[in-house]
Amino acid sequence: MTEGPSPDPTRPAERPASWRSGVPGPDDASVRNLGAVQVRVEEGAEVIPSDRRLLEWIDPRDPQRAAQRMIKDSWRVLRIQSEFVSGFDALENVAEAVTVFGSARIKERTPEYETARDLGRRLAHEGFAVITGGGPGVMEATNRGAYEAGAESIGLNIELPFEQHANPWVTLNMNFRYFFVRKTMFVKYAQAFVCLPGGFGTLDELFEALTLVQTKKVLQFPIVLIGTEFWGPLVDWLRTTLEGEGMISPGDIDLLHVVDTTEEAVAIIVKAARR
């Protein structure tokens, strides 16, 4: 029997075809964003987000782990600082802008997608830049409307265990490690918030913005909810339960503007901006 050639020890062993067997694409499941860095990993491999590492509970009764946490957290402060600096540098020239939130699960060519796209277009025509979370769905549609109308279209993405890729309709995109840094950018450079129907992330941003306005941390900052059918039950609960039981002050609900059309939403924002 004839034997084949001996393997060359200087050549690296070939890996079985798997995650590199296909053509790389923008929605490749093996792509991960680690802050500003994008990497490609084994498909299905877990990449632990920085926020989880930061918030992980470490038993202080374990002296070795506690000491390691102290060292890591001390260095982590510098990373957090650098992320703030990068965000401030990138967005320092943003003038009037509106931050828009909504579901990442909305599909193209649906009424919800077209509503968000029209919102981005109308804001652009009024001279506003648009800021979104930079992902798919409502974020993509709003960025797209602003982009097509010639306005600045900004996406502020975040690393997640289930990866959220940046949509292609942005003129400026940033990837953040930490939610709280990203949230600062959403508020600091915006003159208004608009929330379209969405999930937990949308509700999180909505109530954070509402708290900032209620406590006067930000002024002249309208919060507009588009879709009375979607938002109406939530607003009714806030009024009957929170206000009804004295958990919030009378009039706090009026900080929310609930409308059904993008035209109404933009009119409220323009009026507030021109006071």
**Beta-strand content bin:** 5-15%
**Order of strands in the sheet with the most strands?**
6-5-4-3-7-8-9
What's the order of the H and E elements? EEHHEHEHEEHEHEHEH
Major beta sheet summary? 7 strands, parallel
Number of strands: 9
Low-confidence stretches: none
State the end-to-end distance: 91 Å
Radius of gyration: 23 Å
Global mean pLDDT: 85
Report the principal-axis shape: globular
Structural class: alpha/beta
Question: What portion of residues is helical?
Answer: 40-55%
DSSP summary: helix tally? 8
Explain what you see.
It is a single chain. By secondary structure, the protein is α/β, with parallel strands linked by helices. The protein has 8 helices and 9 strands. It has helices at 50-55, 63-91, 111-125, 138-148, 179-188, 200-214, 228-243, 262-273, and strands at residues 31-34, 37-40, 97-101, 129-132, 153-158, 172-176, 192-195, 223-226, 256-259. A 7-stranded parallel beta sheet has the order 6-5-4-3-7-8-9, sandwiched between helices. Strands 1-2 form a two-stranded antiparallel sheet. The longest helix has 29 residues, at 63-91. It starts with 30 loop residues before the first strand and ends with a helix.
